[in-house]
Design goal:
Blueprint (H helix, E strand, L loop, with lengths): L2 H16 L3 H14 L3 E2 L13 E6 L3 E7 L9 E8 L4 E12 L2 E9 L12 E10 L5 E13 L11 H5 L5 H4 L2 E4 L2 H4 L5 H7 L5 H11 L6 E10 L4 E3 L5 E4 L2 H16 L8 E8 L16 H14 L4 H9 L2 E5 L2 E2 L21 E4 L10 H13 L4 E4 L12 H8 L3 E5 L1 E3 L6 E4 H22 L4
Parallel strand pairs: 1-2, 4-13, 4-14, 14-18, 15-19, 16-17
Antiparallel strand pairs: 2-3, 3-13, 5-6, 6-9, 7-8, 7-10, 11-12, 12-20, 16-18, 19-20
Helix pairs in contact: 1-13, 8-13, 11-13
Amino acid sequence: MSEASKTFANEFVAYLNEATTAFHAVDASRRRLIAAGFQPLNERDSWTIANGGKYFFTRNDTSIFAFTVGENANEDSIAFTALGAHTDSPCLKIKPVATVNKSNALMINTQPYGGGLWHTWFDRDLGIAGRAIIRGEDGSIQQKLFQINDPIARIPNLAIHLTAGAEREHFAPNLQEHGKALLSMDPDFLNLSATEEEKDASGGRIHPGLLRMVAAHLDIPSSTIEDLEMQLIDLQPSTIGGAKQEFIYSGRLDNLCSAYQCLRAVADIAPSVEPSTVKIAMLFDHEEVGSNSCQGAGSSMFIDTLKRIHESLFGTSSSTSFMRSLRRSFVVSADMAHGLHPNYQAKHDASMAPLINQGMVIKHNANQRYATNALSATVFRRAAKMEGIPVQEFTVRADSGCGSTIGPIIATLSGILTVDCGTPQFSMHSIREMMGSTDAHTGYAHLAAVLKHHPTLCATLN
């Protein structure tokens, strides 16, 4: 592994260990953008955008857009080069009524988010993280992120002696009955009573013991917490492993790997490179559940942002110039891919089976589960070739179903030429996934190559 790959992998692992929820992923991204000289924008305000500038904004603290404006961007030649990914991952979220009492045990009231390999969440040391909605001293609505890294929760398996053979062969827990996490069996903790102030603030939805744990972590009075948006988190840190340090082991690689690659590519490529373009990293929420939300890729967030940038630079005089700019633009939808699993080789089409640490994967699907076509794939391949970067191809078996990404959604909403791609991994949607450590940097370099070369490549398209 090269020094550049080793450094990038270590920096990515540090990001993963901060980004335990979509909230924390956006916060970790925000801090890195500020350190790189990006200026924060607010969607409520008018925007003043200048050539050579670097900007970002967030929505709901779970989606974040960062963009740079080319130094020579003008109305007749401007193009948008957008790299898209998502901040959310399958997890066990906590219901608004956060706990229930079962057989003198206080259980965390969970619900599945997305399509997880839920059996991997059993018998793990779990913490809690999320967002607290707080009443300010002036009555304002405020929010703070929190993360409890103590092993306060666990979903215990049923002993082998109490399960039937069929249950052991096909472990399929009923998440309503069997997916709740054990928080406490201590009678004093279970029997805690909420104060009138706590009841008034949170409506009694959150057990006072749990409420006070979060308040203590935030160093605020528990009576100021009006609501909590929480999920369980795995406490095992992300790390680099393998006999030659060739793997990264972590939760949420799908899709924080792509998110970090997109973010770094836009942050690292100077506005002077391809100076007629606006380079964008767009990290959406809610991809794992369909993208249909105000901060998801199914919203108007992407196209509205392009319009605001165009209008801030050139005014509102010509809508046709904006539409022309879309025809010069290019979108990369980056979402993790399925690497060839050595124990399950038959699950792949042998002619298109991506290997770990062999570069990014172009995703194809005849039924438009991916947005790739021959033109967008050629642009993506040529960008890699210009930088000496390997690239792989993937299509599911003809007898297999296919997942989807934000790619078809963005292409539909904007009409922009789009390619779907991703870094190969194993154990997708497990609480603990794995990928190649070299691939982290290779994917970043490939996305950076698109930012460098897209306008030149697309100028040759007829």
